[in-house]
Here is the input.
Amino acid sequence: MTDGRLRMTPGPTALPPEVREALAREPVNPDVEAAFTDDYRRLLEKLADVYGTDDDVVVLGGEGMLGLEAAVASLVAPDETVLCLANGVYGAGFADLVETHGGDPVVHEVDPAEEFAADDVARLVDEHDPAVATMVHCETPTGLLNDLGAALDVLDDAGVVTVVDAVSSLGGAPVPVDAIDVCLGASQKCFSSPPGLATLSVSDRAWARVDETPQDSFYLSLEPWREVELESGEPTLLPYTPPVSNLNALEASLDRLLDEGLDAVHDRHARVAEHCRARGREMGLELFPPAARASPTVTAFHVPGEAERLQRTLADEHDVVLATGIGEHADDVLRVGHMGYNAETERVDRAMDALAALR
Ligand SMILES: Cc1ncc(COP(=O)(O)O)c(C=O)c1O
Here is the structure.
Protein backbone atom coordinates (compact mmCIF):
# COMPACT_ATOMS: atom_id res chain seq x y z
CA MET A 1 0.00 0.00 0.00
CA THR A 2 1.26 3.47 -0.80
CA ASP A 3 -0.33 6.69 0.43
CA GLY A 4 -0.20 8.41 -2.97
CA ARG A 5 2.35 10.99 -1.88
CA LEU A 6 5.33 11.47 -4.14
CA ARG A 7 8.50 11.65 -2.07
CA MET A 8 11.32 12.98 -4.22
CA THR A 9 13.80 13.71 -1.46
CA PRO A 10 17.49 12.82 -1.62
CA GLY A 11 16.84 9.84 0.62
CA PRO A 12 14.94 8.14 2.01
CA THR A 13 13.45 7.36 -1.37
CA ALA A 14 10.21 5.61 -2.27
CA LEU A 15 10.47 1.83 -1.98
CA PRO A 16 9.94 -0.40 -5.04
CA PRO A 17 7.24 -3.07 -4.57
CA GLU A 18 9.80 -5.94 -4.43
CA VAL A 19 11.61 -4.19 -1.62
CA ARG A 20 8.41 -3.64 0.38
CA GLU A 21 7.52 -7.32 -0.09
CA ALA A 22 10.97 -8.44 1.08
CA LEU A 23 10.66 -6.16 4.11
CA ALA A 24 7.35 -7.76 5.03
CA ARG A 25 8.67 -11.37 4.84
CA GLU A 26 8.71 -13.41 8.04
CA PRO A 27 12.25 -12.96 9.38
CA VAL A 28 14.33 -16.07 10.19
CA ASN A 29 16.20 -16.21 13.49
CA PRO A 30 19.75 -15.30 12.43
CA ASP A 31 21.36 -16.53 15.65
CA VAL A 32 19.90 -20.03 15.43
CA GLU A 33 18.81 -20.91 11.89
CA ALA A 34 21.55 -22.04 9.53
CA ALA A 35 19.52 -20.87 6.51
CA PHE A 36 20.46 -17.31 7.40
CA THR A 37 24.14 -18.01 6.71
CA ASP A 38 23.60 -18.63 3.01
CA ASP A 39 21.25 -15.65 2.76
CA TYR A 40 23.87 -13.46 4.40
CA ARG A 41 26.75 -14.67 2.24
CA ARG A 42 24.64 -14.06 -0.89
CA LEU A 43 23.79 -10.56 0.32
CA LEU A 44 27.46 -9.69 0.85
CA GLU A 45 28.38 -11.02 -2.60
CA LYS A 46 25.70 -8.90 -4.23
CA LEU A 47 26.75 -5.86 -2.23
CA ALA A 48 30.38 -6.34 -3.32
CA ASP A 49 29.14 -6.56 -6.93
CA VAL A 50 27.29 -3.28 -6.60
CA TYR A 51 30.36 -1.71 -4.99
CA GLY A 52 32.40 -3.26 -7.83
CA THR A 53 35.08 -4.41 -5.44
CA ASP A 54 36.99 -7.46 -4.25
CA ASP A 55 37.48 -5.79 -0.87
CA ASP A 56 35.46 -6.99 2.11
CA VAL A 57 32.06 -5.41 2.55
CA VAL A 58 30.36 -4.88 5.91
CA VAL A 59 26.73 -4.06 6.70
CA LEU A 60 26.00 -2.33 9.99
CA GLY A 61 22.52 -2.00 11.50
CA GLY A 62 22.06 1.75 11.76
CA GLU A 63 21.79 4.80 9.53
CA GLY A 64 24.50 6.22 7.26
CA MET A 65 26.03 8.30 10.03
CA LEU A 66 26.90 5.08 11.85
CA GLY A 67 29.16 4.08 8.95
CA LEU A 68 30.95 7.44 9.03
CA GLU A 69 31.55 7.27 12.77
CA ALA A 70 32.46 3.56 12.76
CA ALA A 71 35.13 4.27 10.13
CA VAL A 72 36.62 7.16 12.10
CA ALA A 73 36.39 5.36 15.45
CA SER A 74 38.08 2.26 14.04
CA LEU A 75 40.87 3.93 12.06
CA VAL A 76 41.93 6.98 14.09
CA ALA A 77 44.21 6.69 17.12
CA PRO A 78 44.49 9.40 19.80
CA ASP A 79 46.28 12.58 18.64
CA GLU A 80 46.65 11.24 15.14
CA THR A 81 46.29 13.73 12.28
CA VAL A 82 43.39 13.28 9.87
CA LEU A 83 43.13 15.32 6.69
CA CYS A 84 39.49 16.27 6.11
CA LEU A 85 38.80 17.49 2.56
CA ALA A 86 35.69 19.65 2.71
CA ASN A 87 33.46 21.63 0.39
CA GLY A 88 30.18 21.09 2.16
CA VAL A 89 28.36 20.11 5.34
CA TYR A 90 29.34 16.43 5.39
CA GLY A 91 32.96 16.99 4.38
CA ALA A 92 33.43 19.53 7.18
CA GLY A 93 31.43 17.35 9.58
CA PHE A 94 34.05 14.59 9.47
CA ALA A 95 36.26 16.88 11.59
CA ASP A 96 33.74 16.65 14.46
CA LEU A 97 33.84 12.86 14.32
CA VAL A 98 37.65 12.90 14.30
CA GLU A 99 37.74 15.19 17.36
CA THR A 100 35.17 13.04 19.14
CA HIS A 101 37.50 10.06 18.76
CA GLY A 102 40.59 11.92 19.97
CA GLY A 103 42.15 12.65 16.57
CA ASP A 104 43.50 15.94 15.29
CA PRO A 105 41.62 17.09 12.16
CA VAL A 106 43.29 19.30 9.55
CA VAL A 107 40.42 20.67 7.50
CA HIS A 108 41.18 21.62 3.90
CA GLU A 109 38.14 23.68 2.94
CA VAL A 110 37.65 24.66 -0.69
CA ASP A 111 34.91 26.52 -2.49
CA PRO A 112 32.31 24.17 -4.02
CA ALA A 113 33.25 25.56 -7.42
CA GLU A 114 36.78 24.17 -7.03
CA GLU A 115 38.17 20.63 -7.11
CA PHE A 116 40.47 19.21 -4.44
CA ALA A 117 43.68 19.92 -6.35
CA ALA A 118 46.40 17.25 -6.34
CA ASP A 119 49.10 19.87 -5.55
CA ASP A 120 47.23 21.11 -2.48
CA VAL A 121 46.62 17.60 -1.20
CA ALA A 122 50.30 16.67 -1.76
CA ARG A 123 51.42 19.80 0.13
CA LEU A 124 49.09 19.03 3.05
CA VAL A 125 50.31 15.45 3.20
CA ASP A 126 53.93 16.69 3.34
CA GLU A 127 53.13 19.29 6.00
CA HIS A 128 50.92 17.19 8.28
CA ASP A 129 51.72 13.53 7.57
CA PRO A 130 48.11 12.39 8.10
CA ALA A 131 47.37 8.74 8.82
CA VAL A 132 43.84 8.96 7.43
CA ALA A 133 42.01 11.28 5.00
CA THR A 134 38.25 11.78 4.75
CA MET A 135 36.13 13.23 1.95
CA VAL A 136 32.65 13.16 0.43
CA HIS A 137 31.74 12.02 -3.06
CA CYS A 138 28.27 13.60 -3.27
CA GLU A 139 27.58 16.54 -0.97
CA THR A 140 23.84 15.92 -0.78
CA PRO A 141 22.88 19.28 0.80
CA THR A 142 24.19 21.18 -2.25
CA GLY A 143 23.84 18.46 -4.90
CA LEU A 144 27.56 18.57 -5.65
CA LEU A 145 29.45 15.56 -7.02
CA ASN A 146 33.18 15.74 -6.31
CA ASP A 147 35.74 14.30 -8.69
CA LEU A 148 38.03 12.70 -6.13
CA GLY A 149 40.40 10.93 -8.54
CA ALA A 150 43.41 13.27 -8.27
CA ALA A 151 43.24 13.54 -4.47
CA LEU A 152 42.85 9.77 -4.07
CA ASP A 153 45.91 9.12 -6.27
CA VAL A 154 48.08 11.41 -4.16
CA LEU A 155 46.82 9.91 -0.91
CA ASP A 156 47.26 6.35 -2.17
CA ASP A 157 50.89 7.06 -3.19
CA ALA A 158 51.51 8.48 0.27
CA GLY A 159 49.99 5.42 1.99
CA VAL A 160 47.24 7.47 3.63
CA VAL A 161 44.09 5.47 4.47
CA THR A 162 41.14 7.05 2.65
CA VAL A 163 37.55 7.20 3.88
CA VAL A 164 34.96 8.33 1.33
CA ASP A 165 31.35 9.13 2.12
CA ALA A 166 29.52 7.90 -1.00
CA VAL A 167 26.24 7.68 0.91
CA SER A 168 24.23 9.54 -1.73
CA SER A 169 26.08 8.46 -4.89
CA LEU A 170 26.79 4.74 -4.50
CA GLY A 171 24.34 2.85 -6.72
CA GLY A 172 23.50 6.00 -8.70
CA ALA A 173 26.84 7.23 -10.01
CA PRO A 174 30.17 5.52 -10.65
CA VAL A 175 32.30 5.62 -7.49
CA PRO A 176 36.07 4.87 -7.70
CA VAL A 177 35.76 2.22 -4.98
CA ASP A 178 39.03 0.45 -5.75
CA ALA A 179 40.95 3.67 -5.15
CA ILE A 180 39.27 4.02 -1.74
CA ASP A 181 40.09 2.21 1.50
CA VAL A 182 36.73 2.60 3.20
CA CYS A 183 33.76 3.53 1.02
CA LEU A 184 30.53 4.33 2.84
CA GLY A 185 26.96 3.84 1.65
CA ALA A 186 23.47 3.86 3.19
CA SER A 187 20.41 1.77 2.43
CA GLN A 188 17.91 4.59 1.99
CA LYS A 189 19.68 6.49 -0.79
CA CYS A 190 20.35 5.04 -4.26
CA PHE A 191 19.61 1.48 -3.10
CA SER A 192 15.99 2.51 -2.36
CA SER A 193 15.78 0.34 0.71
CA PRO A 194 14.33 1.58 4.00
CA PRO A 195 16.63 3.60 6.25
CA GLY A 196 18.49 1.48 8.79
CA LEU A 197 21.64 0.03 7.22
CA ALA A 198 25.10 1.47 6.70
CA THR A 199 27.38 -0.27 4.20
CA LEU A 200 31.17 -0.17 4.04
CA SER A 201 33.88 -1.59 1.82
CA VAL A 202 37.09 -2.17 3.73
CA SER A 203 40.46 -2.64 1.99
CA ASP A 204 43.31 -4.75 3.35
CA ARG A 205 45.19 -1.54 4.15
CA ALA A 206 42.20 -0.32 6.18
CA TRP A 207 41.92 -3.65 8.05
CA ALA A 208 45.64 -3.47 8.86
CA ARG A 209 45.04 -0.04 10.32
CA VAL A 210 42.10 -1.27 12.37
CA ASP A 211 44.42 -3.96 13.78
CA GLU A 212 47.02 -1.44 14.88
CA THR A 213 44.60 1.22 16.18
CA PRO A 214 43.49 1.07 19.83
CA GLN A 215 39.69 0.78 19.57
CA ASP A 216 38.02 3.47 21.67
CA SER A 217 34.48 2.19 21.21
CA PHE A 218 33.00 -1.26 21.65
CA TYR A 219 29.90 -0.92 19.47
CA LEU A 220 31.41 1.33 16.76
CA SER A 221 34.49 -0.79 16.22
CA LEU A 222 34.79 -2.60 12.90
CA GLU A 223 37.15 -5.13 14.47
CA PRO A 224 34.51 -7.80 15.31
CA TRP A 225 33.21 -7.71 11.72
CA ARG A 226 36.49 -8.88 10.23
CA GLU A 227 36.38 -12.50 11.22
CA VAL A 228 32.72 -13.27 10.59
CA GLU A 229 32.46 -16.99 9.85
CA LEU A 230 30.01 -18.00 7.12
CA GLU A 231 30.10 -21.81 7.29
CA SER A 232 27.40 -23.41 5.16
CA GLY A 233 24.96 -25.42 7.27
CA GLU A 234 26.01 -23.57 10.48
CA PRO A 235 24.38 -20.56 12.10
CA THR A 236 26.28 -17.35 11.40
CA LEU A 237 28.17 -15.83 14.29
CA LEU A 238 27.65 -12.14 13.69
CA PRO A 239 28.77 -9.80 16.48
CA TYR A 240 25.19 -8.69 17.22
CA THR A 241 21.69 -9.70 16.09
CA PRO A 242 21.33 -8.28 12.57
CA PRO A 243 18.17 -6.44 11.40
CA VAL A 244 17.01 -9.35 9.25
CA SER A 245 14.05 -7.61 7.62
CA ASN A 246 16.23 -4.68 6.54
CA LEU A 247 18.77 -7.14 5.15
CA ASN A 248 16.00 -8.89 3.18
CA ALA A 249 14.93 -5.54 1.76
CA LEU A 250 18.52 -4.63 0.90
CA GLU A 251 18.96 -7.86 -1.04
CA ALA A 252 15.83 -7.10 -3.08
CA SER A 253 17.24 -3.61 -3.78
CA LEU A 254 20.58 -5.01 -4.87
CA ASP A 255 18.82 -7.51 -7.14
CA ARG A 256 17.08 -4.65 -8.90
CA LEU A 257 20.36 -2.83 -9.51
CA LEU A 258 22.21 -5.95 -10.68
CA ASP A 259 19.33 -7.06 -12.92
CA GLU A 260 19.28 -3.68 -14.64
CA GLY A 261 23.11 -3.61 -14.85
CA LEU A 262 25.20 -0.94 -13.17
CA ASP A 263 26.12 0.90 -16.37
CA ALA A 264 22.44 1.13 -17.28
CA VAL A 265 21.62 2.30 -13.74
CA HIS A 266 24.24 5.05 -13.94
CA ASP A 267 23.02 6.10 -17.41
CA ARG A 268 19.45 6.27 -16.13
CA HIS A 269 20.49 8.54 -13.25
CA ALA A 270 22.48 10.81 -15.60
CA ARG A 271 19.56 11.01 -18.06
CA VAL A 272 16.94 11.72 -15.41
CA ALA A 273 19.15 14.32 -13.72
CA GLU A 274 19.57 16.13 -17.03
CA HIS A 275 15.82 15.98 -17.59
CA CYS A 276 15.18 17.46 -14.15
CA ARG A 277 17.63 20.31 -14.82
CA ALA A 278 16.15 20.96 -18.26
CA ARG A 279 12.71 21.28 -16.64
CA GLY A 280 14.23 23.65 -14.09
CA ARG A 281 15.85 25.78 -16.79
CA GLU A 282 12.47 26.08 -18.56
CA MET A 283 11.13 27.62 -15.34
CA GLY A 284 14.11 29.94 -14.98
CA LEU A 285 15.55 28.03 -12.03
CA GLU A 286 19.30 28.09 -11.47
CA LEU A 287 21.41 25.31 -10.07
CA PHE A 288 23.12 25.76 -6.72
CA PRO A 289 26.37 23.92 -7.53
CA PRO A 290 28.37 24.61 -10.70
CA ALA A 291 26.38 22.77 -13.41
CA ALA A 292 29.33 20.65 -14.54
CA ARG A 293 29.62 19.23 -11.04
CA ALA A 294 25.95 18.64 -10.28
CA SER A 295 25.27 15.11 -9.02
CA PRO A 296 23.23 12.65 -11.10
CA THR A 297 21.41 11.66 -7.91
CA VAL A 298 20.10 15.00 -6.62
CA THR A 299 19.40 18.43 -8.07
CA ALA A 300 19.72 21.50 -5.86
CA PHE A 301 17.91 24.52 -7.28
CA HIS A 302 18.89 27.97 -6.03
CA VAL A 303 15.71 29.64 -4.74
CA PRO A 304 17.01 32.33 -2.31
CA GLY A 305 14.63 32.78 0.65
CA GLU A 306 11.89 30.65 -0.91
CA ALA A 307 12.75 27.01 -0.25
CA GLU A 308 10.73 26.49 2.92
CA ARG A 309 7.58 28.11 1.50
CA LEU A 310 7.85 26.12 -1.73
CA GLN A 311 8.42 22.88 0.18
CA ARG A 312 5.35 23.49 2.37
CA THR A 313 3.09 24.42 -0.52
CA LEU A 314 4.18 21.48 -2.66
CA ALA A 315 3.37 19.07 0.16
CA ASP A 316 0.08 20.71 1.17
CA GLU A 317 -1.34 21.38 -2.28
CA HIS A 318 0.31 18.77 -4.52
CA ASP A 319 1.26 15.87 -2.26
CA VAL A 320 4.84 16.20 -3.49
CA VAL A 321 7.63 16.09 -0.91
CA LEU A 322 10.93 17.80 -1.78
CA ALA A 323 13.81 18.78 0.51
CA THR A 324 15.17 22.20 1.41
CA GLY A 325 18.84 22.93 1.99
CA ILE A 326 20.70 22.38 5.25
CA GLY A 327 22.36 24.84 7.63
CA GLU A 328 23.08 28.34 6.33
CA HIS A 329 21.50 27.54 2.94
CA ALA A 330 18.38 25.90 4.35
CA ASP A 331 15.96 28.42 2.82
CA ASP A 332 17.97 29.02 -0.35
CA VAL A 333 18.03 25.54 -1.81
CA LEU A 334 15.20 23.31 -2.98
CA ARG A 335 16.33 19.76 -3.66
CA VAL A 336 14.79 17.18 -5.92
CA GLY A 337 16.11 13.70 -5.17
CA HIS A 338 16.21 11.49 -8.26
CA MET A 339 18.02 8.51 -6.87
CA GLY A 340 17.27 4.81 -6.98
CA TYR A 341 13.60 4.06 -7.61
CA ASN A 342 12.94 7.79 -7.91
CA ALA A 343 15.32 8.17 -10.87
CA GLU A 344 12.45 7.92 -13.34
CA THR A 345 11.38 10.61 -15.80
CA GLU A 346 7.67 10.28 -14.92
CA ARG A 347 8.35 10.82 -11.22
CA VAL A 348 10.57 13.82 -11.88
CA ASP A 349 7.93 15.21 -14.23
CA ARG A 350 5.22 14.96 -11.60
CA ALA A 351 7.43 16.81 -9.12
CA MET A 352 8.48 19.45 -11.65
CA ASP A 353 4.89 19.92 -12.90
CA ALA A 354 3.88 20.70 -9.33
CA LEU A 355 6.77 23.13 -8.94
CA ALA A 356 5.92 24.79 -12.27
CA ALA A 357 2.36 25.32 -11.04
CA LEU A 358 3.70 27.43 -8.16
CA ARG A 359 5.88 29.72 -10.24
C1 LIG B 1 26.48 12.69 2.10
C2 LIG B 1 25.79 12.15 3.31
N1 LIG B 1 26.51 11.56 4.26
C3 LIG B 1 25.95 11.05 5.36
C4 LIG B 1 24.60 11.13 5.57
C5 LIG B 1 24.03 10.59 6.85
O1 LIG B 1 23.17 9.55 6.58
P1 LIG B 1 22.00 9.19 7.63
O2 LIG B 1 21.03 10.32 7.59
O3 LIG B 1 21.46 7.90 7.11
O4 LIG B 1 22.64 9.05 8.96
C6 LIG B 1 23.80 11.75 4.62
C7 LIG B 1 22.34 11.88 4.82
O5 LIG B 1 21.64 12.50 4.10
C8 LIG B 1 24.41 12.27 3.46
O6 LIG B 1 23.67 12.86 2.52
Observations:
- The CA atoms of residues 181 and 203 lie 5 Å apart.
- The domain at 17-257 is CATH 3.40.640.10 (Aspartate Aminotransferase; domain 2).
- The chain has a mean pLDDT of 96.
- DSSP finds eleven helices and 15 strands in the chain.
